[in-house]
Specification:
Blueprint (H helix, E strand, L loop, with lengths): L6 H15 L5 H10 L4 H18 L13
Helix pairs in contact: 1-2
Length: 71
């Protein structure tokens, strides 16, 4: 049986992904995504991919912002 990661563990992983991909979301926004998906990392990934797609269609440079420290 797989043990689900905690919200804190998911938040840490998602922050790392955002930093690596230069995708700027606030910690509050990330927490809202995690909460809205019931802490399902697969669903968190899907939401973030959809946000990237939507943002890139509205502004091609949206993911090209400088990296930001989330701590």
């Amino acid at each position: 049986i797989a043990i689900r990661p905690t919200s804190v563990q998911i938040l840490g992983r998602v922050k790392t992904i955002c930093q690596n991909e230069n995708f700027l979301l606030t910690e509050k926004e990330l927490k809202e995504i995690i909460e809205s998906t019931g802490g399902d990392m697969r669903q968190v990934n899907i939401v973030m991919i959809n946000l990237l797609i939507l943002d890139s269609k509205s502004s091609p440079n949206v993911v090209k912002h400088p990296r930001r420290n989330f701590m």
